Amino acid sequence: MNLDFSFYNWDLISNFVLKGLYFSLMLTVIATIGGVFFGTLLALMRLSGKKWLDVPATIYVNGMRSIPLVMVILWFFLLVPAIIGRPIGAEVSAVITFIAFEAAYFSEIMRAGIQSIPRGQVYAGQALGMTYGQNMKLVVLPQAFRNMLPVLLTQTIILFQDTSLVYAIGAYDMLKGFEVAGKNFGRPIEAYLAAAVLYFVMCYALSWMVKRLHQKIAIIR
Length: 221
Prior knowledge:
This is Glutamate/aspartate import permease protein GltK. The chain has eight helices and no strands. About 30% of the residues are buried. The protein has about 220 residues and is an all-alpha fold.
């Protein structure tokens, strides 16, 4: 096997790879923000003690966590246009799917973070006359976010890796950019190897940063 990476240059990267990298990063950021927001709501529903909130949230979380992400991506991409009668595009489909899917995982992270807060602080807030919403907003959630920040960031790194699955519906992510470049220059093996190296470097660097952050949080505690 004769590998040749000499065809890589800035023009190739800017024309093929950067477009896909931008979409992968954008999808990661949007899915993280949306996933944390809806995941927090799901976590509060599961901890509310009210069955009419707990049961549907539990079914949703357990259901999503039991299905492979690529299946959810394909189902949404194929079924939703058939239901509404018009296509929504691979990129929009990917964004909605990732938010819906990641919300289930962020929900469990946030639920663990909320439950890690000593009950004494909750009782102290109640003694001061705070409502349930005020207690969550001012006392519990800020501490839960701090405690769970390393885990949230780790899940975000996994999310970034999972963005490569949008390849299944033809969305132009970073992996797709490398594939197109490889096909255009007749070097698909080199293209996939370069994609693997870039994924590894980015994810390893982010993981190292998360580890350092976790150490600082541990010192603060």
